[in-house]
Design goal:
- By secondary structure, the chain is of the alpha+beta class.
- The protein has eight helices and three strands; from the N terminus they run H-H-H-H-E-E-E-H-H-H-H.
- Helix 1 packs across helix 4.
- This is DUF4371 domain-containing protein.
């Protein structure tokens, strides 16, 4: 990759991390050109060749996002255990955003937590709105399966209102019910091979 392309990626990354508009790349390039003339006129041509149009910045940010997603997927392969958490937050336009976090632990006890996805929410954003579709029918069917198997647990928590410290209890509950969860997922056509792994 050329120095011009690397510079374009570095600046695009800064634009994204600071929530600036894509068109700021053109402004930054203009600043480079204007300041290079008195400071280092021999470098002006190099600055002219740095691609920073709004379309280029948009593509660069998309490339960075895809790369980060691939890195997260590769790191997640090494997880022995993981948990998902949902949180709702409002952006600068007061639009509710549903944030999906993943936290995982590897065999050598390295813990990683990352923002996995973000989705705009229209209308109300109560906990029920966030989990209604996943919860209704599936939850009733899963509870019926637990009762049918006379399991000591009568339910499994979907989310927790307390801090991450409660994750141990939540993970233990999932671990204790892994057989029932696997059976339920298989019936739904979404088996989870890790739940049937004896190791």
């Amino acid at each position: 990759m050329s120095a011009h392309a690397k510079t374009s990626y570095v600046i695009s990354n800064k634009i994204a991390r600071n929530s600036k508009p894509f068109s700021d790349g053109e402004f930054i390039k203009e600043c480079f050109l204007d300041s290079s003339e008195p400071m280092c006129p021999e470098k002006k041509e190099a600055f002219e060749n740095v691609p920073l149009s709004r379309h280029t910045v948009m593509r660069r940010i998309g490339d960075i996002a895809r790369n980060l997603e691939l890195q997260l997927q590769h790191r997640a392969i090494d997880f022995d255990f993981f948990s998902l958490a949902l949180d709702q937050s409002c952006d600068v336009c007061d639009t509710a955003q549903l944030l999906n976090f993943v936290r995982g632990i590897t065999t050598d006890f390295k813990i990683m937590e990352e923002l996995a996805a973000m989705q705009s929410m229209k209308g109300t954003t109560t906990g029920n709105d966030c989990s209604r579709k996943a919860r209704a029918l599936n939850h009733r069917q899963f509870v019926a399966l637990l009762e049918e198997n006379e399991n000591e647990h009568h339910d499994i928590g979907y989310h927790t209102a307390v801090r991450w410290l409660s994750l141990g209890k939540m993970l233990k509950s999932v671990w204790d019910q892994r057989g029932e969860i696997q059976d339920f997922c298989v019936k739904k056509g979404n088996g989870i091979p890790q739940l049937s792994d004896a190791d």
